[in-house]
Write a structure and sequence with these properties.
Layout: H1 3-7, H2 13-28, H3 37-51, E1 57-61, E2 66-69, E3 75-78, E4 83-88, E5 94-101, E6 116-118, E7 121-123, H4 127-145, E8 153-160, H5 171-178, E9 183-186, E10 196-200, E11 202-211, H6 227-239, E12 249-257, E13 267-276, H7 279-300, E14 303-312, H8 319-334, E15 341-344, H9 349-355, E16 360-361, E17 368-369, E18 377-379, H10 382-403
Parallel strand pairs: 5-8, 5-9, 9-16, 10-15
Antiparallel strand pairs: 1-4, 2-3, 4-8, 6-7, 7-18, 11-13, 11-14, 12-13, 17-18
Helix pairs in contact: 2-4, 4-10, 5-9, 6-7, 8-10
Bound molecules: zinc ion.
């Protein structure tokens, strides 16, 4: 994109880029791994500084506790930080729900903690996924706030603290607030070449725990009930539910259990992820899992317990989705950008918005890559570019909504 196209919107694009970069660095230099409540709280207060001046109201809403299975098969509860909700102009004709997350995948103990620039790239934890994206969103809203477009749209910005662990606490809030809006905009990163995510698969995380009976492998082997074997059998049958043709994958991610080889093991646990193309497949697979569990349980004599479920429903490319993408393509053309999108197996809160019936584009953040690794980076020249893209998209949504 040329500087002249940008300077139509921004008088000094370089100064703007510098300011956006500095804000992103401030946010990314604070560790906010999903389980780091103090770190997330610090990031949340910086985000409140960014979004409160643009909003009429700010609510920190406590979501439900997150239930997980620990390595011993016991359920543990985690109380996440509240969900941040910023609202403006709820009476305006067009209502947008805009979402992002304050957490990252990097725990407090990670060696990847601070940012540095490397040529045209800003490297650092969460710069692309998605603190840079939140800065893009704030900048677009700030521009519109000082423009005649201001009163023609209202927004609800929802920033969740638990996206990287599946938005288990935020999902009901996303669902509720999405229902009152016309369009959704989420600020996950686009690929380095600008490609956005189109259709997305649905996803669920599960833990299967087996409890058997421990005996001596030599003296009374046949009295034992082997939990490792029960999990092995169940895991094999689960993985056979994979169908490349139907777009179903079952990934057995981790199996833990057993000890000394002369003891029949009485405990084993398996963690797995399932991805699907349609909501119908989610229901069928849930039934298949239960069926397998009943059969393996009966055959092995072990007690099997399944925890977890589908947390992100599929996000298909519907005609309404297609038409929002076409609108974004027009915005891109005005900026000299060729906007492309493609289907992905990855999931995000755009899935949750879509499940609530809200048409949305969910990769409106910075261009970047290698997210979830210590090589994560953001293309510095995408800060102003992506803010411009959001500004134009909101203008076109206002126009389209006025015509409908
Ligand atoms: Zn993300």
């Amino acid at each position: 994109m040329s500087v002249s196209q940008l300077s139509r919107l921004f008088p000094d694009p370089d100064a703007l880029t510098q300011r956006m970069l500095e804000t992103t660095v401030r946010l990314s230099d604070i560790n906010s791994g999903s389980w780091n409540r103090d770190g997330i709280a610090s990031v949340q207060s910086l985000l409140a500084e960014l979004f409160e001046p643009l909003s009429d109201s700010y609510e920190a809403r406590q979501g439900a506790d997150i239930s997980r299975m620990d390595g011993s098969g016991d359920e543990v509860l985690f109380t996440p930080n509240p969900i941040q909700i910023f609202r403006a102009r709820p009476q305006a004709p067009l209502q947008l729900v805009m979402t992002g997350h304050s957490d990252t995948v990097f725990p407090r103990e990670s060696h990847f903690q601070t940012c540095h620039t490397d040529g045209d790239l800003l490297c650092g934890p969460g710069t692309a996924d998605m603190k840079g994206g939140l800065v893009v969103l704030a900048e677009a809203l700030r521009w519109l706030d000082q423009s005649p477009w201001r009163d023609q749209f209202g927004f609800t910005v929802i920033i969740s603290p638990d996206e990287e662990t599946g938005s288990l606490s935020s999902a009901p809030v996303l669902m509720e607030l999405a229902r009152g809006a016309h369009y959704g905009m989420t600020y996950e990163p686009a690929l380095p070449d600008g490609t956005l995510a189109g259709a997305r698969k649905g996803s669920g995380n599960f833990t299967l725990t087996a409890r058997g009976l421990s005996t001596h492998a030599g003296r009374n082997f046949f009295d034992g009930r082997n939990a490792v074997m029960a999990i092995a059998q169940a895991a094999l049958r689960f993985s056979e539910l994979t169908s490349e043709e139907q777009g179903i994958t079952v990934n057995i991610g981790r199996i833990q259990g057993g000890g000394a080889v002369n003891v029949v093991p009485d405990f084993c646990q398996c963690r797995f992820n399932i991805r699907v193309d349609t909501p119908q497949q989610m229901r069928v697979l849930e039934g298949s899992l239960q069926q397998i569990i009943r059969e393996v349980s009966a055959a092995s004599g072990c007690e099997l317990h399944l925890h977890g479920g589908f947390n992100r429903p599929p996000k298909p490319m519907t005609p309404a989705q297609q038409s929002m993408f076409e609108l974004l393509r027009e915005c891109g053309a005005e900026l000299g950008l060729d906007i492309q999108w493609r289907a992905t197996g990855g999931c995000c809160e755009g899935n949750n918005l879509a499940a609530a019936g809200l048409v949305n584009i969910d990769t409106l953040g910075v261009r970047g890559a290698k997210i979830h690794t210590d090589q994560e980076y953001t293309c510095i020249d995408s800060f102003a570019e992506r803010a411009a893209l959001s500004i134009l998209l909101i203008q076109k949504l206002i126009q389209r909504h006025g015509e409908s």
